[in-house]
Records
---
Amino acid sequence: MKKDTKNWLDMVDYDLITVRQMFETGRYVYVIFMCHMAIEKALKGIVCEETDKVPPKTHDLIYLTGIGKVKLNPDLLDFIGMINNAGIVTRYPEDLSKLVSSYPRDIAKEYLEKTQEVIKCLKQNPALRE
């Protein structure tokens, strides 16, 4: 495994700790944002290994999934599409109060659980085998 790839995966673990802390403190918008970031970094680690290049500077999870030749079950791919869209509104909110009300505790919990499932699958990607 390349040094850069290991760094991406270390950031994933760091971000997941942050996600859990944000969840515990009720910062649910940031739970969604950091879930997106953790998946993005896991995908960039795969892209780094798969292409032997620095991953592109993008937040588009669908694009990264394609470049990394990532295979996931349809349920997880649907979630990646969903959080990909959520990543945009949490990064650049037009109305913070509306955004906060859109992501209550139960929704944030679902995103966190599904993110953990996605990352578990991504970390088993053949490109990441040492």
---
Amino acid sequence: MSGRSKRHRLEARSWPSLPPRHKEVHGLRIIGGQFKGRRLIYNGFVTVRPMREIVREALFAHLGDRVEGKMVFDLFAGTGALGLESLSRGALRATFVERHYPTLETIRHNIASLGLEGRCELVFGDCFVWAKRLPAPTQSTPWLVFVCPPYAYFHSQSQAMTELLGHMLGRAPTGSIVVTEADDHFRGEGLPEFVRWHRRDYGQTVLWIATKGEE
């Protein structure tokens, strides 16, 4: 086959395209703690939905000093803003799980910009699969778990979401906190029933928060 024919076949091949981007991309920043005011990169992909700053600020005001000393898991991590905000406020370490590689690279850049490589772990993979393989902890340090998937998952993958939250709560040490973000169409159906969930509404955004061992 001639070189020209080979080039033609390569040009004709359909390569996967990147997700579309939002027309306007607003900057993200760390709201409080050691890195307060530091800017984070957001690639603008429509498949990434950073928690609104006003909601993130309210969430961490609610959590207060309970962030300090926690092991953080940021699932469906996106920009990594939740895990990085936690580290800024005194969390020990953070694990970020993200299956979209360009987005994972954005998280890597944000971690490096804050000099936090030594306190972070990046996992390239599916959160549902990763959670099933997560071993029981060898230490009793409580966790702070953020589960912020595409809102549609609570309806189209409801069983998988129930299992994911159940896996994380089941393995987490006593005193761990799990936060999941949904929209106001989700009424809490399928949330694990062996813990007490608290609902906090912020317009169309709803946070469900549970503390393992809470009476």
